[in-house]
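Follow-up to my earlier ticket, as requested here are the two runs.
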Amino acid sequence: MVVSAINARVCHARVVNELSLLLVEDDRQLSAMLAELLSSEGYQVSAAADGHTALHWGLTRPFDILVVDRGLPAIEGVDLIGRLRSRGVSTPALVLTARGTLEDRIEGLDAGADDYLVKPFEVEELLARLRALLRRHSDGAEVVRMGRAVLDVATRRVVFSDGSAEVELSGREADLLNLLAHRPRQVFTRDELLHKVFDDAEQPGAVDTYVHYLRRKLGRDVIRTVHGVGYRMGSL
């Protein structure tokens, strides 16, 4: 039922802004189908087949959301989430598993999972739950850490941890810095930044202009130029 529903959904997928998703599932057939489904919905999917790999990736790569099975090799799914939480990883996590007793659900939520969905599941419900988790996480993400500084999204201020400076940004400057800081390893093309930050309302040169503004306010290293490609987050 789940497999056929996934296949049907992929054929009618809609593309949304890409968000990075870590899928942890040891059933390789189901993992491949879920990865295809989620990719067709606009997620950048990294698929891990065991808890050890997932722990390493969760600690070293930036993800927007996690989808985690329970009965995993090496590190059990609930234990995996608990270890990530204990090391400061607050990425929203949905447990997707066949273990659906009340005790199982309570154990998963108490370990740090944000939601719990039992197999077999409806594809539309899975996608809706992921959207809800992302909305809740986005609503609560008021501060973005960037090395020795933080961006307060609500006030559009960058505050340095040593108290040496507090810099006020314009709305566009804050939006651009917020996007880059949330995905510090990703290189964005000018067209991608224009679409995500400026809604295609400006000429491509607007991206370079606001990069210049941010560098003037925060230092040249705050945004790195990747020649021939675009820009990525630098250092503060």
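Run two:
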Amino acid sequence: MASPARDSVDERGAGWVAFAGVMIGVVGVLNVIYGIAAIDNSAFFVENERFVIFDDLNTWGWIHLIVGAIQVVAAFSIWTRNAFGAVVGIVTASLNAIVVLLWVSAFPVGGFAIFIIDLLVIYGLVAYGVRRREIA
């Protein structure tokens, strides 16, 4: 039987975990969409922009597509309060925050919005992502 102290910790952090799961799912879906658009060389992005690492939108598209797919899977795992989901969520949100800052010249407003969401997801998962085990 769980102690009242543990129940209150789980309930207090439940909102942050739900928020982190939903946001990483939304960001993951957006990354998949942006990845597909970049791979397809869509007119959605600014042409003739220089990127920090790759000069090609196609490469950025594959990176976003892969990270986005992993984030969508992590969102479902986060909702079950699985430690694997929290770790994958923290790692992919961290990597996505870095990648989005490198990619921001192609989509500045959306890039900074996704960066802020990634920071909030990281906070929610680090602070409340995994249930604490009761010390006997």
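The only thing I checked on run two: DSSP finds four helices and no strands in the chain. Let me know what else you need.
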